[in-house]
Specification:
Blueprint: E1 2-7, H1 15-18, H2 20-27, E2 33-38, H3 44-52, E3 58-63, H4 65-75, E4 83-88, H5 94-99, H6 105-114, E5 116-125, E6 128-130, E7 133-137, H7 142-145, H8 148-154, H9 157-167, E8 173-177, E9 182-192, E10 213-219, H10 226-242, E11 252-257, E12 259-263, E13 269-272, E14 275-279, E15 282-295
Parallel strand pairs: 1-2, 1-3, 3-4
Antiparallel strand pairs: 5-6, 5-15, 7-9, 7-13, 8-9, 8-12, 9-10, 10-11, 12-15, 13-14
Helix pairs in contact: 3-4
Length: about 300
């Protein structure tokens, strides 16, 4: 068996680059041939992952949730996909938390060497893909607008600082969920396929193998005043702190399904796994058991 190890050299303060020899030696204990590639620009991981399909038995990669998204974007429309191994090195690492893959490099490598293969769902959004969350509205731009230096220096606090600086004057926008015949105004809409979002266990009972997406909308009447907006902000905090199952208020709309058609204004930008996605109307659907992932042997209820 052969593998390629693709890593983001700036993610996680460059710790992966410093441990490169150890990682390569460890991977050689499982794979007969190990190729190493350091990404050079945004989108490079997507390109390399796509080119690796059909050439390698495994794609091992390191980075944050954005890097995970790049790999999924690169391979999800192809067939006969290789197994994926993940060494988390990002700021939040939501998908790693969901799959219980340790951030510690040695322990993550142990999962790659001794873990089990599980086929995981991903999401298709128009002609693009996402692994665990598709969101639009308040604070969602913070994950892709926060400077890398800030993330390296102060970790996920940098996201909160960015959100406070640029997202407090949030607006409510029209959301037409055609598949559910729901028309509301909202400040945040999320389609979730994992347990963690932004470091919080928002979707505790989610599964990456059930063929379903859980959707949540923080809704309100249009042209609301300051106090209504403040209440909606508290609702959002309640949602993230206590999870969507416990957060049951009139402002929260919870939906479940395998696909959704959603119409929003063209200037509304969607966030795919923490990265900037498309604008406006989307069709989001589950792609069942598409991603062949190495996970811990003792992982249950994926």
């Amino acid at each position: 068996m052969n593998c390629i190890f693709i890593y983001n050299p700036v993610s996680g303060r460059g710790k992966i680059h410093k441990k490169l020899n150890f990682i390569k030696k460890s991977l050689a204990e499982k794979y007969d041939e190990v190729t190493v590639y350091a990404t050079q620009y945004s989108g490079d991981m997507k390109r390399m992952a796509r080119e690796a399909v059909g050439k390698y038995d495994a794609i091992i990669f390191s980075g944050g949730d954005g890097s995970f998204n790049e790999v999924v974007q690169g391979i999800a429309d192809l067939d006969n996909l290789p197994e994926l191994g993940y060494i988390p090195s990002g700021t939040v690492n939501d998908i790693a938390h969901t799959l219980q893959i340790p951030r510690n490099v040695k322990k993550a490598l142990q999962v790659i060497k001794t873990g089990k293969n599980e086929m995981l769902d991903c999401m298709k959004v128009n002609d693009h893909y996402a692994m665990y969350v598709v969101a639009a509205g308040a604070f969602t731009s913070a994950t892709y607008n926060t400077p890398q230096d800030d993330k390296n220096n102060i970790g996920k606090i940098a996201y909160y600082v960015e959100g406070i600086k640029h997202n407090l004057d949030f607006d409510f926008f029209k959301i037409d969920c055609k598949s559910e015949k729901k028309k509301v105004h909202g400040m945040l809409v999320m389609f979730i396929n994992s347990r963690y979002v932004s470091g919080f266990k928002v979707n505790e009972h989610s599964s990456l193998q059930d063929g379903k997406i859980e959707a949540t909308v923080i809704q309100e009447e249009p042209k609301v005043g300051f106090f209504k907006k403040f209440f909606s902000l508290l609702t959002m905090a309640f949602l993230f702190l206590f999870g969507r199952k416990r957060a049951k208020t009139e402002s929260l709309l919870h939906l479940e399904g395998s696909s959704f058609d959603v119409d929003v204004p063209e200037d509304v930008v969607w966030n795919f796994d923490g990265e900037k996605g498309c604008n406006g109307r989307i069709h989001v659907e589950v792609v069942p058991k598409k991603i062949n992932m190495l996970v811990p042997q003792n992982l249950k209820n994926i």
